[in-house]
Amino acid sequence: MFYDHQQIEKKWQKYWEDNQTYKTSNNTDKPKFYVLDMFPYPSGAGLHVGHPLGYIASDIYARYKRHQGFNVLHPVGYDSFGLPAEQYAIQTGQHPAITTEQNINRYEEQLRKIGFSFDWSREVRTSDASYYKWTQWIFIELFHSWYNKDTDKAESISALIQHFEEKGTEGLNANQNDELNFTAEEWKSASEMDKEDILLNYRLAYRAETTVNWCPALGTVLANDEIKDGKSERGGFPVFQKKMMQWSMRISAYSERLLQGLKTLDWSQPLKDSQEYWIGKSQGAQVRFNVEGHDEIVEVFTTRPDTIFGATFMVLAPENPLVETITTDAQKAEVDTYIEETSKKTERDRMSDVKNVSGAFTGSYAINPFSGEKMPIYISDYVLMGYGTGAVMAVPAHDERDHRFAKKFNLEIKKVVETEEDVQEKSFDSKDSVCVNSDFLNGLNYNDAKSKIISEIENKGIGHGTTNYRQRDAIFSRQRYWGEPVPIYYKDGMPYTLPTSALPLELPEVEKYLPTEDGDPPLGNAKTFAWDEANQKIVDTNLIDEKTVFPLELSTMPGWAGSSWYFLRYMDPKNEEVFTNKELSDYWGQVDLYIGGSEHATGHLLYSRFWNMFLKDRGYINHDEPFQKLINQGMILGMSAFVYRIDGTNQYVSKNLAKEYTTQAIHVDVSLLKGTTDELDTEAFKAWRPDYADAEFILEDGKYITGREVEKMSKSKYNVVNPDDICNEYGADGLRLYEMFLGPLEQSKPWNTQGLSGVYGFLKKFWNLYFNGENFEVSDEEPTKAEYKVLHTLIKKVVYDIENFSFNTSVSSFMIAVNELQKIKCNKRNILQPLAVIISPYAPHICEELWSLLGNSESIEFEKFPVLNEEYLVEDEILYPISVNGKMKFKISLSAQLSAKEVEELVLQDEKMVQILDGKTPKKIIVVLHKIVNIVI
Ligand code: ANZ
Question: Where does ATP bind (predicted)?
Fold first, then answer.
């Protein structure tokens, strides 16, 4: 019977939509299971076959869990704010909302074609006002919270105010920007402005001066990856490091919890390692050094306080505010020039450039509190202002960067030899270092020496032991248009949150998506974007009078805001009263399985864990960690194709002749190849682009053969394969099976269209099991043991595979089972009916069709997954090979229930054996039960 995949798939996709088959109920007594995909950014290019890989895996798992009797939440949505739509708007004037809508429609159409069991009714879009209303609400909550280190959680800012009113800062243990000290009286007599200023020091969403990459020509702050060699990637304009008032998120308050939480998660070790590295916990000490002739002190953070005897100079970050006060007149010019140079480098450049040591002397000296010696104070860009205290004590004999610096500036190098490790440790250049021996730490191992020196530092009152985290607070403002407006207005320059009743603060219309002439972000172009405090509404910008009408914040939120909590919104996507009802978030709880790309290892997965912990602290949800199990799917690689242009001509030479010329390899679109071969359709190539219209070709055997290479699948490499084309030709079921069949989920693997026909052949064979010629025909006869064995072997294998996320091996088992059933001509209902259920998570359309042909009126989705009966797997008969003097002579089938003795007897009675023995008595008989019988005569 003809397997008409197109008609079948269309029919079932319509059925699922009409019957809302995958709509998830919140009211059920079934246990819950939450399967989530990292939601896509809908780009203009649409999906290629690499995108659905993870979605197919999670869909199989979701369907499997439904068959197992779980209430499965398997939603989809769009991360729809972001740069590409805005960039396009700048070029074309097209409103990003329009492009975004078009892209989403295209994505939805493509996703629906693949037959995912998403509950479409729960779809969210981060750029919808009904969604970002709650992103803004969370921002407001963060603004009104602080981190209490004693209770180890975020608390309401009103609790902090109460503390100030009662005790000032006494007994306060908070996460903050600057250490402040004041009494309750001082707090009470402070002005409202001063109070607000103080509170900003503690808020979890706060405004502070931070160093950013500023590009004056583009009028915007750029992210590190938008800069190449100190210039903007777009336009090549110079970029400077600049201090700007920016919104930040106090994620650093959560560093320890983010670290500890990892232990409770079922994530891969490399993923945990990268989070751990990013958080970067290090234990050491903060030590204060006096500066000769100044009242100022230099405070350093060191992980090796035990090396303080070998500290011979100090290095400050060029941005350290102390630099200005301690630099002598004689050194001022040199120091200023150096600071100016540093401002052109990004932090990343500063960290990665370890070869070129540079710096300047301030002219001042610090005093080593242990040796009493003078230490010249330098500035250098290898010391970063944002880490530790922005200053280091340099120990050139023990630290590589300090060593390079000492060599360059001809500074003293002293090796400290007191601990066992020190003796073993290789010095960078032992010849150039003087050894100092401190009796104080003599003979101690590294850890003991470290604790001893820390207590001594504390005794001397010059510092204390401390833990530092590399993770910084996250900058939250973007000078962009296409993002969530920050719900803040300014009164006398001080930020205030909008009342939640004013939410959503809608993104205003603007004429231009570029910064204003005054250098304000694009929202500065909006005509109606001011807050009327008296009337509690958004009004015309011209009305700003700083009395009752105030300016609103003009920057927008970063891309990660909306994606940091979307998994909670899916639980209750339409709720207008709250971001998600508490009972529902209790019911759905953690995401049980989260699948997505490894590129989100440190960004999204840290920010969303942080927001989730915060919402837990404030009592809105009940679980600390959002994602219990996480799998990173591998990448699908494309097979790029190349033509070889002879330099300076428009002549193209076929691959195997190219060595004879000087050529340049140029990507060609893989759709220009003939069928599934490497041969270029030269006419199609000429028509591809005007540049190639009069291309000439040097052929081999009358053909132009392209070069092929495996690369990341990407539109820019012209190697993308569109899933729509595959669905048309082989069906969504073919695509789904094939993507899984390609290899283990977590590995990267090349896409090779040739393998598709094999999978399609399997589907046809599977289909035909249920047909006799043109007629659907299954028999109600009881299956044989052999038939049951095929079925139950498959159940055992597939259950194991799915539960271990080994989807590729299930596909091979399907093929084996279908081949065997075909061989034994099985058409029994009791085999074929459960078979359809087993295959349905992978190939849902064909299985629904067969299920309905089998006479069922409900969707196959609600059928229980077949249960394994081990009895069918017990072997009845064993086919024993009989080996005589090491040679296999014949085989004999015997009951598996027989003992070794019984097997021996039956073998000896066998007619063939009697002939071989020819009256002799065997010297030895060895029966390996269920395997083989060895006889020596
Ligand atoms: C003396 C010393 C001796 C150091 C030694 C290391 C080795 P992690 O592990 O990353 O925390 N450091 C401190 N603040 C810095 C800053 N703002 N910019 C650049 N470097 C900074 O590294 C901490 C170590 O890095 C500190 O310990 C300090 O150098 C340096 F044999 O102090 B150490």
Answer: 715
pLDDT digits (tens, 9 = 90+) for 590-599: 999 999 999 8
Indicate if ligand 1 lies below 6 Å from the C-beta of 395.
yes
How many angstroms does the Cα of residue 313 sit away from the middle of ligand 1? 13
Q: What is the mean pLDDT of residues 624-646?
A: 96
| CA 218 – CA 73 distance, rounded (Å) | 44
Domain 749-872: what homologous superfamily? Isoleucyl-tRNA Synthetase; Domain 1 (1.10.730.10)
Cα 467 to ligand 1 centroid, rounded to whole Å: 12
Res. 229 pLDDT band, cuts 50 70 90: confident
Give the contacts of 131 (CB within 8 A, at least 6 positions apart): 124, 125, 562, 569
Domain ranges of the chain: 28-135+559-632, 139-268+485-505, 281-469, 636-712, 749-872, 875-936
Q: How far is the CA of 392 from the centre of ligand 1 (A)?
A: 6
pLDDT value of position 424 = 54
Could you tell me how many residues make up the chain?
937
Q: How far, in Å, is the centroid of ligand 1 from the Cα of 372?
A: 21
Specify the ligand 1 atom closest to the Cα of 398: 31
CB 96 within 8 A of CB 481: yes
Cα gap 336→360, rounded to integer Å: 9
d(CA 608, CA 562): 10
Mutate to test the pocket of ligand 1, among 276, 283, 387, 400 (most ligand atoms within 8 A of CB): 387
- Overall CATH class of domain 875-936: alpha beta
Residue 667, CA distances (Å) to 671, 708, 725, 753 in order: 12, 10, 21, 19
Q: What is the mean pLDDT of the chain?
A: 93
The residue whose C-alpha atom lies closest to atom 27 belonging to ligand 1 is 302
Residue whose CA is closest, atom 7 of ligand 1?
399
Q: Which residue has a Cα nearest atom 2 of ligand 1?
A: 304
Sorting pLDDT into bands at 50, 70 and 90, what band is 361?
very high
Distance CA 83, CA 429 (A): 50
pLDDT tens by residue, 164-205: 999 999 999 999 998 899 999 999 999 999 999 999 999 999
Ligand 1 and 398: CB distance under 6 A: yes
Is residue 337 left, alpha or beta, with left meaning phi > 0 and alpha meaning psi from -120 to 50?
A: alpha
The binding site for ATP comprises 715
Q: Quote the pLDDT of residue 427.
A: 47
Cα dihedral 378→382→388→389 (10° resolution): 30
Q: 807: helix, coil or strand? A: helix
Residue nearest to atom 14 of ligand 1 (CA): 388
